[in-house]
Amino acid sequence: MARLLQAVALLWALCEAALAISFQLPANSRKCLREEIHKDVLVTGEYDVSEPAGQGQVLLKITDSANHILYSKEDASKGKFAFTTEEYDMFEVCFESKNPAGSGRVPDQMVVLGMKHGVEATNYEEIAKVEKLKPLEVELRRLEDLSESIVNDFAYMKKREEEMRDTNESTNVRVLYFSIFSMCCLMGLATWQVFYLRRFFKAKKLIE
């Protein structure tokens, strides 16, 4: 059992390590990353920006879909951030390079960003110290929280599926009614054209 928990913990650690991404940030440019996160979820992150060649600096800003600033840092070089989401929303992490005019050609800066949320962002070492838990108990707590997170994700997906199904059914009913209305309009127009042409030809004495 202990070996199984160790293997799960190792796999979990490898998954966490894979969340870190790196990219090149050219001078006087802006790059953003977006991610959807559920409500009441702890989000933590760590960033590392290489030193600029000139007098430039990098601005880090984290905002939600309403453009509310959740975290902002001027001259960001290396640090951490954390916030808790209030609603299910799309969050944006932006790095913007600013270099003074006339600084010539400046090499691209390397940005390394690692973000964690939910169970990934929980500091189980701190919990173990506060609650005086054994390593096995810590792993059990981690697996319990992970299971709860998966269940919540499935519940949210089920809810979204029900909402989408209701929307599809409502749309299908509206399309059906609109099709029936269109057919009635076409039939009425065709009947009016027949009677109009019949009166026209009778007036011209082309038919009896």
Please explain how this structure is put together:
- With 208 residues, this protein is α+β, with helices and mostly antiparallel strands.
- It has 2 domains: 2-121, GOLD domain (Jelly Rolls); 134-208.
- The chain contains 3 helices and 8 strands.
- It has helices spanning 2-17, 124-131, 135-203, and strands at 21-25, 30-37, 42-49, 57-63, 69-73, 78-84, 89-98, 109-117.
- The strands form 2 sheets. It has a 4-stranded antiparallel sheet, with no helix packed on it.
- α2 packs across α3 (135-203).
Main beta sheet strand tally, sense and closure: 4 strands, antiparallel
Average pLDDT confidence is 82
Structure class: alpha+beta
CATH superfamily label of the largest domain: GOLD domain
Number of domains: 2
Question: What features would you highlight for this structure?
Answer:
Jelly Rolls, 2 domains, four-stranded antiparallel beta sheet, alpha+beta, 208 residues, single chain, 8 strands, elongated
Task: Produce a short descriptive summary.
The chain has 208 residues and is an alpha+beta fold. It is built from 3 helices and 8 strands; from the N terminus they run αββββββββαα.
